[in-house]
Amino acid sequence: MNLREAVVDIIKSIDVVNGREREIQNIGHGMPYEYMNRFIFPKVYRIKYTLTFRHDGFDSNSAMQHLGSNPATMTLGELYATAGFYKKGSREYNDIVDLTARLFPDNPEANINAAGVALTRNDVTLAHKYLKRWETDPRAYCNMGLLYLSEGNRDKAEVYLKMAKAAGVMQADKALVELMKMK
Q: Are 140 and 131 in contact (CB under 8 A)?
């Protein structure tokens, strides 16, 4: 390979994150890089791993222990993972999802999900609180529609559910069908 020593020197002295590849492309009118691209890179294999962990015998008591003595130290993902050990709609699941909004008040996902839980509990006041900041976020459109529907405001409900349907939310389509039955 032409300019092999120059390429080796770049590899030894410049990290990938600091522009190693760009530096190699700049020497010898790009010929060394073209050689590497053609003859070396195809022989280099990348391996991608997907790990799945399973814990046999994990029960609801173990999941609550996973919350630890201070759930405030857990990440949003850890809280959702813990909620996942419970059946959707169960008291434990709902309590953990509600907790995410209280621990992460600036996170739209946590608040929108907690609003959904509040709606299943028929707590429109709490749902309003969680959705207020996110009512223009397309992820909240379906919950906004259901909130207005539960308050009896069918016109606003229809607008939000149509926007949710346009955003690809399948549940919005089902809610719209039910709304049309009410008219």
A: yes
